[in-house]
Amino acid sequence: MKKIILLLSVLVLVGGCQFNVNGTVDFDDLEPSNPDVIEDSVKEGWSVYRNEVLGIEFEYKDEWGTPEVSPYKYLTRLKDVQEEYGSQQYNYFKDQVEIRFTNYNSNYKLPKLHFYNDQHKGDDYPNGLVMGEGYVDNFDEVVESGDICEYRFSYDNEGFTATQVYDECTSYDYTSIIYYTESSRLAGYYNYNFSLYSYEPLVNGFYENLLIEQPVAVRQLRSNSYTQPDEAVSAVIEQAREYEKEFDVVYDEVKSDFEYLLSSIELIESSGIINPEIKRGQASNKDHQLIYDYYYNIAIGDLGSAYDLNEGSETLAQFREWYKDTYNAEVYGLNQLQNGNYEFRVNLYEHNKRPDEYRVVKSVIDGKLKSVSSVQVLSEVKYNDDLSAMAIKEGSNIKVLVYKDGKEILVESVETMTGDHLTEGFIRAREVSEFSEDGNYLEVIEYGWEWSSTYLYNVVTEEKLDVNFEFPEFTADSKYIYDCSVGDIGSAAGFKIVKLGNPDEVLVDMTYEDLPEGSYGYKCTYDAEKALVEATYVVYDEVERTRLVYDLLAEDFL
Fold it and tell me: HEC profile for 87-98?
């Protein structure tokens, strides 16, 4: 039977340090439902996720987004994670791999799955001054017993303490309150957290201890106005009483979803590495077969045989270096051009990396392949047979190309991955995202170091729009594009609305500095009937959200 741990706490951040005071929730009102009473089939609005490398399959709610693994999004070999991160003492991924859902940034009430190795004994106390001096929990004892009811929180070192003052556990339900104290000065923010937890042992040879965390509610307030710790604690508890009312609304739904997720978990025995099925393509045309055989040999690691089918200036040693990490290769879309050359796509796979897609043109000379051209396809989007776009990489340059009515248009070409990553304008990658509904605009996303930004290309005028967005949305009639966000480092956060046409007209261009101070969350909605765009921002020390409403017809704020 699955077991769940409910952690309830008022968590206080002081000078970058965390500590808790016990809250006031009436636990008698939190009646658990039976997690064993679950439908056998996939529920409507849910999908199945399977990860053979980690050895787990589960169902997840579609509105959560899609599961995404970290630190490698394309996880194919676990031992590489331990080799890269295991020696980094305070790295978040030193002893774990994590699965989050892609909508986590806009909805904190989503599960996180922590896959820990046996070196993970517990979480370090979340304070830089004493990190590494001890753990705030006894996760190692939970692993040893296999029972989440053994989970406890305790820490005491140099004035920093964490004491569990309340706990209660049924056959699958565990509740605790933690009281954190700290002797240093008061500063920063206070967090009120309420979460669910569950534990599962796995079998993959590397990260075999799964702790699932499900936030239920979290609130923050500034501590700047409080000069004494007891004043701040009292303020937090007073707000906690107000937030209890919200638990009645969100708790049942969140816990029900969490229990369904747990019930859907299927454990798969795994070796910690993906084992793809590699097939040799079969063709009646001998030239086609030559291409299939060449990449089949690369896929199975027979690089000597692949080299013998290749006509090039590189040495065997250079050839081996190119493909030494390749574990699979897939050829598709093979066509013969009018000049007799062959154009096709090939996906090359290396462990823990996104597959590299290439657009390749080769000729066949005396039974050997000779490369004519090869570009890496970073992304591609198609509107119809006459309009498409592609981002490609040639050497150190990234090019954005639009194909319109049989004509190739170069939108831009930029050099990438050169110089210091902190340099202004440093670009790691670009990708074409989507066309507007009428096909007149193309979204292009550019990625830097810990930031991303989106711009628009006007397909009709063949010009770039001089406004950067974070997560833009077109209106259904393609007359406007709007964006409200609080972004990451260096992003184009803010509130932006552009009236699309010839010429395009920027109606709103508020940057992050123009938003209410302390904004940390957002929601953007569009009312087509009333022609209103509403941006909602949550502010740390305000109970009410800050709303910005723009009337598209009046072209002004309400």
Answer: CCCCCCCCCEEE
**How many whole angstroms separate alpha carbon 127 and alpha carbon 228?**
20
Cα angle, residue 302 at apex, residues 299 and 306 outer, rounded to 5°: 85
Tokens, residue 390: 């592609």
C-alpha–C-alpha distance, residues 468 and 471, integer Å: 10
Q: What angle do CA 202, 205, 207 make, to 5 degrees?
A: 60
Phi, psi of 182 (to 5 degrees): -155, 140
Q: Mark residue 366 as left, alpha or beta (left: phi above 0; alpha: psi -120 to 50; beta: remaining).
A: left
For 171, phi then psi, to 5°, come to -65, -25
C-alpha Rg value of the chain to the nearest Å: 27
C-alpha–C-alpha distance, residues 48 and 127, integer Å: 38
Question: pLDDT tens digits, residue range 278-327?
Answer: 989 889 899 999 999 999 999 999 999 999 999 999 999 999 999 999 99
Q: Do 291 and 331 contact (CB within 8 A), yes or no?
A: yes
> Can you give the pTM of this predicted structure?
0.73
Helical residues (DSSP H) of 300-443, grouped into ranges:
303-308, 316-323
Is the preceding omega at residue 503 within 30 degrees of 0, hence cis? yes
111-129 b/e (C-beta count within 10 Å ≥ 16 → b): bbbbbbbeebbbbbbbbee
The 10 Å Cβ neighbour count of residue 554 is 10
Q: For 196, how many CA atoms within 13 A lie in the half-sphere containing its CB?
A: 26
Q: Tell me if 253 sits within 8 A of 33, measured CB to CB.
A: no
Residues shown for the chain: 558
